[in-house]
Amino acid sequence: MKFTKMHGIGNDYVYVSTFDQKAPADPAALARAVSDRHFGVGSDGLILIVPSERADARMRMFNADGSESEMCGNGVRCVAKYVYDHGIARKNRISIETGRGILSLDLEIDDGKARRIRVNMGAPILQGSDIPTTLPGDPPLEVPVLLNGRELKVTAVSMGNPHAVAYVDDVARFPVEILGPILENHPSFPRRVNAHFVEILAPNEVRMRTWERGSGITLACGTGACAVCVAGVLTGKSESKLLAHLPGGDLELEWAGEGSPVFMTGPATEVFSGTWDG
């Protein structure tokens, strides 16, 4: 099986195109195998790039634990880059079918390759039952949640996948590795949740760290950065245009308010290609 390793600001996945080969029989098991950083390729998961009747391509995303997720913001940028760079669709605007619908992506081309990509991520989902969460509010805004004896105020939104955002004073020192998995599996989130811990640097600038559902600590989470932008506007903690610093790099976000789509801009990078015989 041919694969390509790609990343969006360090959020890395193994990409398998089925445009020119058969789809894997068990993608969940393949995701677990290739994601292993000692015995596999090493990644945050597996993304399949498959033909679509409604868009230029369709993506299916599997976390490192084999669970299938609805959406990945960094991943969809890489899918668009693959589709352009590998000649599936040579145009500056690419459409990708995802678990949350068809997304439109605008590509910045340099020397024949897609480098930076702006994604229309669609409008956030703010209805609590659709996020889904049992926390009160549509959406829940700064609801106190007890984690391992520590109270955090959590704002929950969905970008096609569920996110919980908590603001902290010093994100570098925050025990993400301890409280992240507790928040991911909190009973208030029936389908688990991506947990983000955010430090405000300025009205238009934040630093964030992520515990990603099914993958653990990752260097970046694109849908999570979008959720942080939305949470900042809803709580009044940040402005509609936001620069988010993630461990793997920076993303630019913009959200004009309820009913409007979130726009995310960032790089996509191809690392290497290979063949998996496992």
- Judging from the principal axes of the Cα atoms, what is the shape? globular
Radius of gyration, rounded? 18 Å
Residue share in helix:
10-25%
What is the number of E strands?
18
Strand percent estimate: 35-45%
Largest sheet: 18 strands, mixed
Helix-strand string: EEHEEEHEEEEEEHEEEHEEEE
Coarse structural class: alpha+beta
CATH architecture assignment of the largest domain: Roll
Number of domains in the coordinates? 2
The CATH topology label of the largest domain is: Diaminopimelate Epimerase, Chain A, domain 1
Low-confidence stretches: none
What integer is the average pLDDT?
97
CATH class of the largest domain: Alpha Beta
Number of helices: 4
Distance between the amino and carboxyl termini: 9 Å
Q: By CATH's scheme, which homologous superfamily of the largest domain applies?
A: Diaminopimelate Epimerase, Chain A, domain 1
Structural features, described:
The protein has 278 residues and is of the alpha+beta class. It folds into 2 domains: 2-118 and 266-275, Diaminopimelate Epimerase, Chain A, domain 1 (Roll), CATH 3.10.310; 128-260, Diaminopimelate Epimerase, Chain A, domain 1. It has 4 helices and 18 strands. The chain has helices spanning 27-35, 73-85, 176-184, 222-235, and strands spanning 2-8, 11-17, 45-50, 57-63, 68-69, 93-98, 101-110, 113-120, 143-147, 150-158, 162-167, 194-202, 205-212, 216-218, 241-246, 249-255, 262-267, 269-275. The chain has an 18-stranded mixed sheet that branches. Helix 3 (176-184) links the parallel strand 11 and strand 12 (194-202). It starts with a strand and ends with a strand.
